[in-house]
Amino acid sequence: MTTATVEAENAKEEIEEIVSNCIRCGMCKSLCPVFSIMREETVSPRGKAIILDKKVYDKVVYECSLCKACEQKCPLGLKLCDAFRKARKVLVEQGKETKENREMIKNVKEFGNPFGRVSGKKLDKLYCC
Amino acid sequence: MKEKKQIDLIAYSTDASMIEGNAISIIFPESVEKIQEAVRNFNGITIRGGGSGLVGGAVPQNCVVLDMSKMSKILKFDLAKRDIEVEAGIILDELNSYLDKHGLEFPVNPSSHSICTIGGMIATNAVGSRAIKYGRTSDWVSRVWVIDGRGEVIEAGKTEIDDFSGLEGITGVIFKARLKLIPKMKRTASLVSMSSLSDVQGLVMNLKLREDVSAIEFFDRFISGLLNLPDSNHLIVEYESEEGKMKGEDYIRVMNLRDNIYPTLASAGFTHIEDPKILIHKFSEFAEFLQENKIPFFGHVGSGIIHPVYRKGQESLIRETIKLTKKLHGQVSGEHGIGLSKKEFLEPGDIKIIERIKKRRDPLNKLNCGKVIDLKPQKKEEEKKLVDAADVEVNDGDEGLIDFQEDTKQGGVDNGNTN
Ligand code: SF4
Ligand code: SF4
Q: How far apart are CA B160 and CA B146, in angstroms?
């Protein structure tokens, strides 16, 4: 196994440790900014936890601002946001991340910011979200 | 879109009951016409609000899921008359935060208030903690608009509301409601610890005589331990006066504590919850049985609704609890409804009444089929008669499956009025 594969497998295990404890109560939906706009279960923290619990690693984990509001509301204190971040790692390792994410990483490396060329010159410092 | 659809099906396969089902497609209607189209085109439709139900009401069984969440607008508001018309997908907390600015509120308060929708509350006739003062959801609904099983719009006033309220979506898709409101109350609460169960019963009986008491919630010693409270039974008494010791932030904290009791228990392995309703003077007898059998319990003791919780494999204890509930002349389900998991407890008389309404409103058994009651299969000729009378086409497979997601996405989401 390559280091990348090992890391992806470890991430999957860590994700499972988090989401397998979810009792589907849905309390985490109440403060989620993504759910409040989209109003679809799939993008809600509960929805994403259910999907990950089925070991499906999908781009839906990018539909998340990583704000941790769901963690604040979860009565079990599940570290959902960590799980979503780790799922992104799995997707990156599998080369399945979003086009936007790939571009952003490239821009950060190349131009020091996530947006790409800014005012035509390369920046001295790295700026990232 | 294939990938997107597959993950939708996974996310919609369950709800807070943790029962696993199987969705074949998801529809997000944003107009009445889309609901009608869905009802006319599909044979098995599961209606979903917040997915907060505990009896599997929103769990699809090889059905198309109609997620009402995007129909969440406030349509009309009359401050002077204190009434409001809303779409069914509005979440109770969203509604109350809008009303708060006008000094009003919707008084029924289930512990899932931050995620449950008004449509779901009407469909289950939700009760919540303030039942001793404000009753059930149906007491505060003056009109509902529904799509019946034929795809027709029904406007149901006082006399017809009972065909839909509390029937868990098996008779129609509630898409709009007119609600009655009350002036926003200033509330306080007290946390009372009591070691003896008969003392609890006595105190509750006395508190119920007070006009300013709006909720009396109970939780036992075991739960107190999980919540890091002293080793005793506890009551949370909510007052609509300055009587309670906890005010402002403290009040909010203690009410949040109550909302989190079931999830806390579930995380400790007690994942099965029941909701018997018993008369208050039978409380000690019922509570002693639960305590002797090490069954943790809590609930809206003021209105007699108790929630015993069980671990997996404790089916015989559940049966014994139900037997005792019946012996004490209580109701087996006080507030969670019947859904998928409580069908066996419905009384034959109730089944007959529900069947009659179901056949009148949804003759082809399209809506939430398999929930609440199991309809006997129609004889072929009867089915034909019903189809002719309903004048609808039936589609019971994947053929012609419509994916409304694209349409609805393009339309964007308009819930600006609710925030
Ligand atoms: S971290 Fe993501 S899923 Fe959780 S509340 Fe924030 S946006 Fe929603
Ligand atoms: S609040 Fe926690 S336990 Fe409840 S559904 Fe969300 S992640 Fe699961």
A: 11
Instruction: Give the residue from B176, B172, B173, B175 showing the smallest Cα distance to B362.
Output: B172
Can you tell me the distance from the alpha carbon of B199 to that of B207, in angstroms, rounded to the nearest whole number?
12
Mean pLDDT, residues B277-299: 95
CB contact under 8 A, A25 and B52: yes
Query: Which class in CATH covers the domain with range A3-111?
Result: mainly alpha
Q: What is the mean pLDDT of chain B?
A: 89
Question: Quick one: which H or E segment has residue B355?
Answer: helix B348-361
Region A83-104: what's the mean pLDDT? 92
Contacts of B241 (CB under 8 A, 6+ apart): B188, B212
- Quick count: other Cβ atoms within 10 Å of Cβ B131? 24
Can you tell me which residue has the tokens 């999957």?
Answer: A12
Is the pLDDT reported for residue B5 higher than 90? no
Does residue B365 have a pLDDT over 80? yes
- Show the tokens assigned to B132: 């001793």
| Contact assessment for residue B342 and residue B332, using Cβ atoms and an 8 Å cutoff | yes
Strand partners, B153: B147
The answer to whether the beta carbons of residues B320 and B279 sit under 8 Å apart is no
**A128–chain B Cβ distance below 8 A for any pair:** no
**Token digits of residue B405:** 């997601």
Which ligand ends up closest to the CA of A67?
A: 1
Q: Let me know how long chain A is.
A: 129
What letter does residue B232 receive in the DSSP assignment?
Answer: S
Q: Averaged over A65-84, what is the pLDDT?
A: 94
How high is the pLDDT of residue A117? 78
Mean pLDDT of B377-383: 56
Looking at the complex, does the CB of residue A4 fall below 8 Å from at least one CB of chain B? no
Q: Look at residue B11 in the predicted model and tell me its pLDDT.
A: 98
For residue B385, pLDDT over 80 is answered with no
Nearest CA in chain A to B12: A41
Q: What is the CATH number of domain B74-183?
A: 3.30.465.10
> How far out from the chain centre does Cα A49 lie?
11
Q: What is the pLDDT of residue B405?
A: 34
pLDDT of B4 over the 90 cut: no
Across the interface, of A26, A59, A73, the residue whose CB is closest to B16 is: A26
Give B404 to chain A, closest Cα distance, Å.
13
CA atoms within 13 Å, Cβ hemisphere of A18: 26
Residues of chain B contacting A73 with CB distance shorter than 8 Å: 114
For β-strands B213-219 and B182-183, DSSP reports them as unpaired
CB-count burial class (<10 Å; 0-12, 13-18, 19+) for B93: middle
Beta strands per DSSP E along B321-402? none
pLDDT, residue B415, reads 32
Map out the domains of chain A as residue ranges. Answer: 3-111
Output the pTM of the full model: 0.87
Element (H, E) at B273: strand B272-273
Is A24 an interface residue toward B (CB < 8 Å)?
yes
